[in-house]
Write a structure and sequence with these properties.
- The chain contains 4 helices and 12 strands, in the order βαβββαβαββββαβββ.
- The model has no long low-confidence stretch (mean pLDDT 93).
- The relative contact order is 0.21.
- The two termini are 26 Å apart.
- 18% of the residues lie in helices and 39% in strands.
- It is of the alpha+beta class.
- Helix 4 links the parallel strand 9 and strand 10.
Amino acid sequence: MAIELDHLMWGAPSLEEGMAEAERLFGVAAAPGGAHPGGGTRNALLSLGDRVYLEIIAPDPNQDLAGTFGERIAGLEGCGLITWAAAASGLAALAERAASLELTARGPAPTERRTPDGDLLSWELLFLGGHRFPGLVPFFIDWLETPHPATTNPLAGQYRTLEIRTPDAAGLNDLLSGLGMTIVAEEADTVDITAVIETNNGEVRLGKAPGTDGWTL
């Protein structure tokens, strides 16, 4: 089975700013998600249709941000895409496949957070390294028994496509195909990533967050 996009990670200097900008773009208010303990972040979520959602991720003012991902996001000059996640089951097997492509793997790592209602959500994550495409190669998520966030959060629109551009599209496409993915990158002079979503307000294009070249999770 092909591995498909699960969610878009859209960074914001503060959650309030990210939620306000998302509501301006989509005309729909995002639902607060929760905090990621130790990561220095918290989030809010919008559904983008069938098993795809937008994660607005921002620093958590209630955590010590020193050395965390939240500390980096706090330095963003505005909202924008940081990276994306792909849905996969059997992350251990995917890690083995990645090793056959001479990639390094971190995980599968059990992860959890509590919702504002106190429910505990649990899932697994896998991060790949050893490649030259930070931000363009996704991290991977297996939701296990947790309901998919696309089914439990406000609907903002319908995800259409993810446009990925890089000077080495052939190399990136070989890697993505080797991992079992169908998304195809385009050749371009500079690195860029744009998500296209159809909404009641028309087409929304979410571009790459400025200053995030080379970022890894």
